[in-house]
UniProtKB/TrEMBL annotation:
InterPro entries: MFS_dom, MFS_trans_sf, TM_effector. Pfam families: MFS_3. This is MFS transporter. The keyword Membrane applies.
Length: 434
């Protein structure tokens, strides 16, 4: 069976561009390390504060700096050599993680330091991600962009599936210092991937970073209804369907299992993304990518709602073991929760593949950095707003309320918004129009 006919993932981007292959390997290893730190910081803050709201505020505190860095990083990517921009931002990410590890080893870590370094790390990483996304279309032909986006899903699957599970085990048995240090080691691979790239100056008219560049990008976005709507749909999904900030409390007080359960739940999302990437061959053959985004986000909302129902069952005492003084966890409910989250991860990955392909194919190179900057702000900013929604509502009501209500809201809003823009459903990958 040919690559084009196979249901398995298309690996042709690796052979078509060795530079892309090196960048993918470096990004995957560095992303794996980054997930160790993300989960470890969540657990660390919860251990120091015993507050789900404090955990959610880690993400919220980094929102504004990340927005500013993503937007400015996109402008830098449209004005200067993209390889250099990505390398400099990666240095900042590396330094913040190294300082976090140093503080943990010396016992000087505080909630304040965890917040500050998380903010610096997320801001610098948003510049790296925006620049790398703008680089990919320069390394590959347009017909391989869906395959490249699916390979990015494999990266996300590996780093979020293995990372949280490994982080849970490392924190439980080795401590925070070793967990942060392993991230520092793995992050060195990102420099190898970026250093080996050729110089990549933006094509077309170059606008220096500043308000004029930002206004130029905003004007383009106003003329790009398909790109604009995919941003809005992703914000809806991430705002009302991101229960990650609740995982430490779910593991500690609802399902049991502590850090291990937190790692399992987070890894389940990535497992779904990973499996959907492995069988992503048909995705590259879909022409109506707008319709694909709509359907996949609706499946995402449904799965998050079902996750909320599982938590409701746990709150009502269904499936809980007898109180023997041991934190054995509600094994059946943990499995069901993980399955619903795996479906959500698969659906989100399919949506992300279509959204990334649409961005890279329909946006001209001279605008790609700025639009990717906005795209990264949406992708990374949405979950932070979602963390505030989930943490606040869980504090006011109960842990099961945010995902159950959020799933219902996603289904309703997505159907309504797409109905208002029929052109989005008719988007044709063979004639990409922004």
């Amino acid at each position: 069976m040919s690559t084009r006919e196979s249901a398995l993932i298309d690996l042709r981007p690796f052979t078509a561009s060795p530079a892309f292959a090196r960048l993918w390997i470096g990004s995957t290893l560095a992303g794996l390390g980054g997930q160790l730190t993300v989960v470890a910081v969540m657990l660390h803050v919860f251990e120091l504060t015993q507050s789900t709201f404090a955990v959610s505020m880690i993400a919220v505190a980094g929102l504004l700096p990340m927005v500013a860095a993503g937007l400015y990083g996109g402008m830098l990517a449209d004005a200067f050599d993209r390889r250099t921009v990505a390398l400099l931002a990666a240095v900042v990410t590396f330094a913040s993680t190294a300082l976090l590890a140093t503080l943990a080893w010396t016992g000087l870590e505080t909630v304040g330091w965890l917040f500050v370094l998380s903010v610096v790390n997320s801001a610098a990483n948003s510049i790296v991600m925006a620049t790398k996304s703008a680089i990919t279309p320069r390394l590959l032909p347009r017909d391989l962009l869906p395959a490249a986006a699916a390979l990015q899903g494999v990266t996300v699957g590996i780093m979020v599936m293995a990372g949280p599970a490994l982080a849970g085990v490392l924190v439980a048995f080795a401590g925070y210092a070793w967990t942060y240090s392993l991230d520092v080691l793995l992050m060195t691979s990102l420099f190898l991937g970026l250093w080996s790239l050729p110089k990549l100056r933006p094509e077309g008219e170059v606008v220096r970073p500043g308000l004029a560049s930002l206004r130029d990008g905003a004007r383009f976005l106003r003329r790009a209804p398909n790109i604009r709507l995919q941003y809005i749909l992703d914000i809806v999904a991430m705002t009302f369907g991101q229960p990650v900030a609740l995982f430490p409390a779910i593991g500690a007080v609802l399902l049991g299992g502590g850090a291990i359960t937190t790692g399992v739940l987070t890894a389940a999302v990535a497992a779904g993304a990973f499996l959907s990437s492995l069988f992503s061959g048909p995705i590259g053959r879909v022409r109506r990518q707008g319709l694909g985004i709509e359907r996949s986000i609706q499946v995402y909302g449904l799965s998050i709602g079902l996750f909320g129902l599982v938590l409701l069952a746990a709150a009502l005492g269904w499936g809980r073991p007898a109180d023997t003084g041991e934190d054995r966890g509600a094994v059946l409910l943990i499995v069901l929760a993980a399955l619903t989250l795996a479906v959500s991860g698969a659906a989100d990955n399919v949506s992300a593949t279509y959204r990334s392909t649409m961005m890279q194919a329909a946006v001209p190179d001279a605008m790609r950095g700025r639009l990717q900057g906005i795209f990264i702000v949406v992708v990374a900013g949405g979950p932070r707003v979602g963390a505030l929604y989930a943490g606040t509502l869980a504090t006011i009501a109960a842990l099961w309320v945010p995902p159950l209500l959020g799933g219902i809201v996603i289904l309703a809003l997505v159907g309504f918004l797409v109905r208002l823009s029929p052109r989005f459903r008719d988007y044709d990958a063979l004639d990409p129009q922004p």
